[in-house]
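User: structure tokens for N-acetyltransferase, please.
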Amino acid sequence: MGEGSVGNDRTGHAMTSRFLLDDLRSQRMYATTVADRIWREWWGPHGATLADVEAALDECLDVNDLPVTLVAHESGRFLGTVTCVASDLAERSQYSPWIAALWVEPEERGQGLGAALLGKAEARLRDLGVGTMFLCAKSTLRRYYAALGWELLEQGVGPHLLDVWRRLATPAGA
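Assistant: Done. Predicted tokens:
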């Protein structure tokens, strides 16, 4: 397997050549770190508390479908995370579901980990029967998402002037 490609090991963990991708429900030891990264990057700057994020993340630990949080890890070290949610942008509540809060630790960036996390999130949504998925991001990330095959739907949405992206689910193995 090449770096960034995803398969399964003998225990059913999604893995690449150097890291594992798992549901947070099976890797709860990373919940505090995931909450911290989401809070620092997205929620804290807008007035939410870390406890608010922890409460929202608890939802991911108690359900069978959405929301779901995935983590990338290697040898007990947190590398990144992504979450699938029903709604991520109040201004576009008609769209659902969303891939949200893609985070890769700074020292791990540029190695295919973000693409692997997105791919695993897309596969999870596809397994739930989703035909179309969405995400929102800062305009500075346009080249990144376009290169991964996402279609830019709208620009400058909401008070943070976010881009809205869409991806049609592809059948498994396609």
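User: Anything notable?

Assistant: The chain has one domain: 7-168.
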